[in-house]
């Protein structure tokens, strides 16, 4: 086992300070030994009080790898446990991917035993890494998170702690840091990310092309996962461990430049620290705050826009082209993302080039134009008339059949339809009324299709449904999503109130004075009312 003793640590710390001459004195050298322990304890206590709010007697699991950061977190939380009365536990992950893995596990077990803290070890199943070598960092991260949640659930169960959804679910923390957080009464998993990790995270996001409004680092608290060290610098943690005479194990993989984050930490961060004269952290945090303000402004502006856009509550859900075109370009981009997110339940992945192309099409769009731009997956953005909406690739419709006495009405799944025979009580307000139907009619309600013909009551012969809607001055975007009622392969009604010749109200017809289907059978034909209260998208 390779450990870094106090003397080696002092030499390394001096090397760090001398290798970064651009750092100001307060950051180039660690705090004075007599103050560093109290400083780290105070910073940790402040973070737990302001950002974490872990309830007394709750289980607190420390994710302990054996490295400097996690060992410092363990020692800091251990010192505060008596004050907060947590049930402290150690969780170690043995990935088995490096030859040092067993030595690291032994070190963690010994450290936990030395301080009488229960230790839990989780190992990757044998052969797990060989199953797929791709994205191994992301996969192991997901495995660690899953195992952490399982352990926390076991501890809650064994200690009789009642879980509360708001506290225990994996939710984002409140955006308003000033508002009081709900207590994490069901426990937490503490991670050792610190202030310098925040800088790396933000630089990673910049390199990956993150939107300006999303340049945020890691959260102090996200669900049961908490990060009490986000306000502490790496050098402060190293000085803290030296003062405690606490060993740790250096993870050799942190020096491997095949990982992008390592290259940022080893190459980019030192250069930027020097070029910024030691101001990298403060400037990065300032950018993060400005990004948060921009995000709040975008969400507020888009919320106001969507509340006033009638297309947002239409079927299908969409955006009015004339309204979105009047917004600034950044707001247009955010509205398009909101539309895709709401329509597909996935986070949109749009490059700046694709957004630029979309804005150009919207700017040139005319009320009689129609176009599509393919998105990732099975969706496209469809702009027709004054409507911009998300359209999925055509797939077979799933249908359901409603029974109306002996008659049937087949509708797409996802549509909410009420229907019934007209009685002496009358039909509901807003109904589409169709007359002269046999009591055992087999009807179908669907969107109109190319080739559908319709016979309006006021003219001779049939006309295409498309031409009929155009003649009725129905907007282009509304024409695409107009339901029709079909009987014996004939369109007998166009929603909401256009009834075909032969199915309108006959002059001699009187409303049936009955409420039972038996009397309707005697009449032979009767009147049906239909109300469509909700329709899903055309491709659903």
UniProtKB/TrEMBL annotation:
One BP annotation, GO: tRNA processing
Any matching Pfam family: ATP_bind_3
Recorded catalytic activity of this chain's protein: cytidine(34) in tRNA(Ile2) + L-lysine + ATP = lysidine(34) in tRNA(Ile2) + AMP + diphosphate + H(+)
Gene3D superfamilies in the cross-refs: HUPs
Gene Ontology cellular component terms for the protein in this record: cytoplasm
UniProt cross-references to InterPro entries, sorted A to Z: Lysidine-tRNA-synth_C, Rossmann-like_a/b/a_fold, TilS/TtcA_N, tRNA_Ile_lys_synt, tRNA_Ile_lys_synt_N
Keywords: ATP-binding, Cytoplasm, Ligase, Nucleotide-binding, tRNA processing
Coiled coil region boundaries: none
GO molecular function: ATP binding; tRNA(Ile)-lysidine synthase activity
Transmembrane segments: none
Localization: Cytoplasm
Highest taxon in the source lineage: Eukaryota
The protein's Enzyme Commission number: 6.3.4.19
UniProt entry tagged with the keyword DNA damage: no
Start and end residues of each Lysidine-tRNA(Ile) synthetase C-terminal domain: 443-514
Protein name per Swiss-Prot or TrEMBL: tRNA(Ile)-lysidine synthetase
Species: Prymnesium parvum (Toxic golden alga)
């Amino acid at each position: 086992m390779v450990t870094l003793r106090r003397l080696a640590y002092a030499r390394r710390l001096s090397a760090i300070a001398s290798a970064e001459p651009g750092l100001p004195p307060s950051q180039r050298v660690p705090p004075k030994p007599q103050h560093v322990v109290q400083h780290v304890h105070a910073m940790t206590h402040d973070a737990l009080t302001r950002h974490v709010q872990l309830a007394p007697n709750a289980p607190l699991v420390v994710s302990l790898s054996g490295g400097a950061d996690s060992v410092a977190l363990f020692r800091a939380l251990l010192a505060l446990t008596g004050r907060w009365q947590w049930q402290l536990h150690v969780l170690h992950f043995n990935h088995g991917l490096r030859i040092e893995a067993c030595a690291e596990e032994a070190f963690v077990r010994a450290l936990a035993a030395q301080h009488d803290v229960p230790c839990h070890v989780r190992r990757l199943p044998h052969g797990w890494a060989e199953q797929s070598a791709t994205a191994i960092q992301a996969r192991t991260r997901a495995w660690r998170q899953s195992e952490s949640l399982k352990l926390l659930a076991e501890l809650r169960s064994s200690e009789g702690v009642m879980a509360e959804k708001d506290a225990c679910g994996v939710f984002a923390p409140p955006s308003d840091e000033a508002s009081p957080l709900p207590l994490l009464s069901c426990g937490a998993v503490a991670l050792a990310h610190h202030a310098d990790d925040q800088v790396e995270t933000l630089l990673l996001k910049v390199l990956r092309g993150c939107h300006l409004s999303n340049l945020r680092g890691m959260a102090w608290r996200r669900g049961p996962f908490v990060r009490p060290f986000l306000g502490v610098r790496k050098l402060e943690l190293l000085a803290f461990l030296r003062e405690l005479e606490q060993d740790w194990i250096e993870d050799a993989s942190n020096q491997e430049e095949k990982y992008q984050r390592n290259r940022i930490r080893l190459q980019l961060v030192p250069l930027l620290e020097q070029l910024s004269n030691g101001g990298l952290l403060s400037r990065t945090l300032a950018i993060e705050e400005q990004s948060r303000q921009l995000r709040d402004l975008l969400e507020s502006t888009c919320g106001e826009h969507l509340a006033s856009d009638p297309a947002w509550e239409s079927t299908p859900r969409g955006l009015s082209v004339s309204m979105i075109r009047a917004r600034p370009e950044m707001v247009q981009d955010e509205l398009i993302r909101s539309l895709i997110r709401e329509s597909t339940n996935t986070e949109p992945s749009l490059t700046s080039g694709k957004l630029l192309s979309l804005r150009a099409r919207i700017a040139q769009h005319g009320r009689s134009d129609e176009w599509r731009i393919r998105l990732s997956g099975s969706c496209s953005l469809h702009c027709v008339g004054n409507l911009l909406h998300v359209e999925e690739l055509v797939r077979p419709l799933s249908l359901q059949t409603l029974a109306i006495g002996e008659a049937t009405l087949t509708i797409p799944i996802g549509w909410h339809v009420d229907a019934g025979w007209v009685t002496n009580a009358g039909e509901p307000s807003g109904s589409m009324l169709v007359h002269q139907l046999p009591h055992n009619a087999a009807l179908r309600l669907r969107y109109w299709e190319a080739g559908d013909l319709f016979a309006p009551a006021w003219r001779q012969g049939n006309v295409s449904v498309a031409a009929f809607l155009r003649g009725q001055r129905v907007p282009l975007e509304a024409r695409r999503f107009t339901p029709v009622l079909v009987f014996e392969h004939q369109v007998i009604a166009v929603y909401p109130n256009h009834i075909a010749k032969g199915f309108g109200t006959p002059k001699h017809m009187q409303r049936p004075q009955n409420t039972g289907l038996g009397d309707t059978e005697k009449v032979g034909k009767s009147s049906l009312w239909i109300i469509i209260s909700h329709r899903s998208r055309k491709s659903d």
